[in-house]
Design a protein that fits this description.
The chain has about 425 residues and is mostly helical. The chain has eleven helices and three strands; from the N terminus they run E-E-E-H-H-H-H-H-H-H-H-H-H-H. The protein folds into three domains: about 1-165, no CATH class; about 275-350, no CATH class; about 355-410. The N and C termini lie far apart (about 165 Å).
C-alpha cells in the first residue's frame, strides 16, 4: 500500500499512484473509482464532489420528509432509492453519516404514517356521519310533499355527496343505495303528483270554459236580481273548479271578468237612473221624518199614535228612495215608532190587572211570613236560644227587604 500524502488524501479517502480512489468505511477502505487522466488532487476532488451532491440530495430528502411534504409511501420509496445510492456510492465522504441521517427518517415516516392513518380514519368517520345525515334527510324528503323545495334540496344533497370521500366499500355502497332509493321514490311520487295535478287542471279548464260561456251569455241580461245571483253562483263554481293551466286560466278569467263587468256595469247604470227618479221620494220622506220626530217625547199617547199612523200612510205612499238612503231613512222612522210603542207598553204594564193582583198576593204572603218569624223569634228569646234568635232575625231582615221591593213594585200598578 502506498503512503498517502497531504495532497492526495483526506479524512474520508485517498488516491494511490495509479489514480485509484478509495473511500474509508467502518469496514475498511472501499475502491470507488479511478481517474487516470488527471492529477491525484483532481481525482480526489471529483469523488468528493460526488459526495457533496449525494449529501445535498440526502439533506433535501430529510427536509421534505420532516416538513411532511411527501406521503409516507412516497417518503419510504424515496428513502430506499437514496439509501441504495449512499450504500453503493462512488464518492468520498462520510457515507455512514449520510446513512445515519436516512435511518433517522424511519421513525419520522412511521409517525407520519400513523398520523395519516388516524387522519384518514377521522375523515372517514366524518364522511360516514355526513353521508348518514344526507341519507336521513333524503329519506325524510322522500316521504314529504314539498315538490319544489324537495327537488332542489335533493340536488344539493347529491352535490354534497359527490365531494365527500369514500368510506369502506360495503358501508359506502349501502348508504348510496339508501340515498338513491330515496331520490327515486321522491321522483316517482313527484311525477305522479304533477301528473294528477295536470289532469285536475285539464278538468278545471273544461269546467271554466263552460262557466265563461254561461257568464258571457248572461252579460246582456236586464233581469238584475236573478242574474246577479246567477253570477254569484258562477263565481262559487269557478273557485271550486280549482286552477287550470296558468296561461289558459288567466285568459279564461279575463273573459269571465269582462262578462261580469259588462253585466254589473249595465246594472249600476240602470240603478243610477232609478236612484235619480227616487231622489224626490227621499225628499218627501225627509219632510215626513221632521213631522214624526216632532212627536217625541210622547206626552199624549193617543194623539201621537194617530199622528204617526197618518205619517206612516204618507210614508208608504211616497214610494221607493235611492238605495244608499234606505237604511238611514228607515232607521229614523223605526226609532220614532219604537219610542211610541215603548210608551204604550209601559202604560199597559202599569195597568195590567193580573200583575197588580200578583203583586198584592206577594205582599200578603210576605207579611204573613214576617209575622210568623217574629212569633218564632219571641218564642226563642223566651227559651234563651240565642243562636236560633240570630238565625231567625237574619231571615226576618231578608223577608222585610223583599216586602219593601214588592210594595214598590205594587205602586207601579196603582
Amino acid at each position: 500500500m502506498t503512503t498517502m500524502s497531504a495532497v492526495t488524501s483526506n479524512e474520508w479517502g485517498r488516491v494511490d499512484d495509479e489514480r485509484n480512489v478509495y473511500v474509508k468505511t467502518a469496514d475498511g477502505e472501499r475502491w470507488v473509482g479511478q481517474y487516470p487522466d488527471g492529477t491525484p488532487e483532481e481525482a480526489l476532488a471529483l469523488f468528493t464532489d460526488r459526495f457533496d451532491q449525494l449529501a445535498f440530495e440526502v439533506d433535501q430528502l430529510v427536509l421534505r420528509v420532516n416538513a411532511g411534504k411527501m406521503s409516507p409511501d412516497e417518503a419510504t420509496e424515496a428513502l430506499k432509492t437514496v439509501k441504495a445510492k449512499v450504500t453503493d456510492a462512488h464518492a468520498v465522504g462520510d457515507l455512514a453519516g449520510l446513512a445515519g441521517k436516512l435511518d433517522a427518517l424511519l421513525p419520522v415516516i412511521a409517525t407520519q404514517r400513523e398520523a395519516r392513518k388516524a387522519e384518514r380514519a377521522a375523515k372517514a368517520a366524518e364522511a360516514k356521519e355526513a353521508k348518514e345525515r344526507i341519507v336521513a334527510e333524503a329519506e325524510r324528503l322522500a316521504q314529504g310533499n314539498d315538490w319544489r323545495g324537495g327537488a332542489n334540496r335533493l340536488r344539493e344533497l347529491l352535490e354534497e355527496w359527490k365531494v365527500l370521500p369514500r368510506i369502506d366499500r360495503a358501508g359506502d355502497e349501502a348508504l348510496w343505495k339508501r340515498f338513491s332509493t330515496a331520490r327515486t321514490a321522491y321522483t316517482r311520487r313527484r311525477k305522479a303528483h304533477f301528473a294528477e295535478l295536470n289532469e285536475k287542471r285539464e278538468g278545471a279548464r273544461v269546467i271554466k270554459e263552460r262557466l265563461v260561456a254561461e257568464a258571457e251569455a248572461l252579460s246582456d241580461s236586464t233581469e238584475w236580481g236573478p242574474t246577479a245571483g246567477h253570477y254569484r253562483d258562477l263565481m262559487q263554481r269557478w273557485k271550486a273548479a280549482g286552477p287550470a293551466p296558468k296561461d289558459v286560466d288567466d285568459a279564461l278569467w279575463k273573459r269571465f271578468r269582462a262578462a261580469q263587468d259588462a253585466f254589473f256595469g249595465a246594472r249600476d247604470s240602470a240603478n243610477a237612473a232609478i236612484d235619480a227618479e227616487f231622489a224626490a221620494n227621499a225628499e218627501v220622506k225627509e219632510a215626513l221624518l221632521v213631522e214624526a220626530e216632532a212627536l217625541l217625547p210622547v206626552t199624549d199617547l193617543a194623539a201621537a199614535k194617530a199622528a204617526f199612523r197618518d205619517i206612516a200612510d204618507r210614508w208608504d205612499a211616497a214610494g221607493k228612495v235611492p238605495r244608499d238612503r234606505i237604511r238611514d231613512l228607515e232607521a229614523r222612522i223605526r226609532r220614532v215608532e219604537q219610542a211610541i210603542k215603548a210608551v204604550e207598553d209601559e202604560q199597559w204594564r202599569k195597568s195590567d190587572p193580573e200583575k197588580s193582583a200578583r203583586a198584592d198576593d206577594m205582599i200578603s204572603k210576605l207579611e204573613a211570613a214576617i209575622a210568623q218569624v217574629e212569633k218564632e223569634i219571641a218564642e226563642a228569646k223566651a227559651k234563651g236560644e240565642e243562636k236560633k234568635v240570630a238565625s231567625l232575625e237574619e231571615n226576618l231582615e231578608s223577608r222585610r227587604q223583599f216586602l219593601d221591593m214588592a210594595r214598590r213594585a205594587a205602586e207601579d200598578f196603582s
